[in-house]
Design a protein that fits this description.
This protein has about 210 residues and is of the alpha/beta class. About 50% of the residues lie in helices and about 15% in strands. It has helices at about 15-25, 40-50, 65-75, 95-100, 110-120, 130-140, 155-165, 170-175, 180-195, 200-210, and strands at about 5-10, 30-35, 55, 80-85, 105. Strands 2-1-3-4-5 form a five-stranded parallel beta sheet, with helices on both faces. β1 (about 5-10), α1 (about 15-25) and β2 form a beta-alpha-beta unit. α7 crosses α10 (about 200-210) and α8 (about 170-175) crosses α9 (about 180-195).
Length: about 210
Amino acid sequence: MADPIKVLLVDDHQVVRRGLRTFLEVQDDIEVVGEASDGAEGVARAEELRPDVVLMDVKMPGMDGVEALRTLRELDNPARVLIVTSFTEQRTVVPALRAGAAGYVYKDVDPDALAGAIRSVHAGHILLQPEVAGALLSQEEANSGQGRGGSLTEREREVLGLIADGRSNREIARALVLSEKTVKTHVSNILMKLDLADRTQAALWAVRHGMAG
């Protein structure tokens, strides 16, 4: 049996953390390894506990979720961050995704859907709702990565198209009959050639340039 997905809860409301923990602890494949009440504590706990996934609130006193995300990226912390937000805070989702979040869920999300979202981002998927993807694209510079696509090999273009479809490295490897290690190398080369920071930006670049499935 695979190791459980280690999850860190970062939210300034104790009742929210308690509710999340109560639900997630009954999932056989998910383990809550810690909690934090603000962004700064969340960063410290993420460095200490090395979770697989961080459930991060956006609006918190002191260091907010977006700044915590940026700090985690600067520290090269490998945790996948899933933003938990309310519908009224949707405008804050775009900065969070640009800072490196793997996706977002609303605070009133169905419990089973939340567990599914955690499993999805842990597997390497990017959770983007159409309206948020559109907002991200509208904020990109028109020439962002323009002309760099020609430097990609045919195989890299195939990998990029599958990233845009939300496929994980494992799924890409299976689809293209490659090893996961080879896929990881292709992804690294794509990000370097296109001067992009992460898979989210790569997926958006592919959408903009008509390479998504």
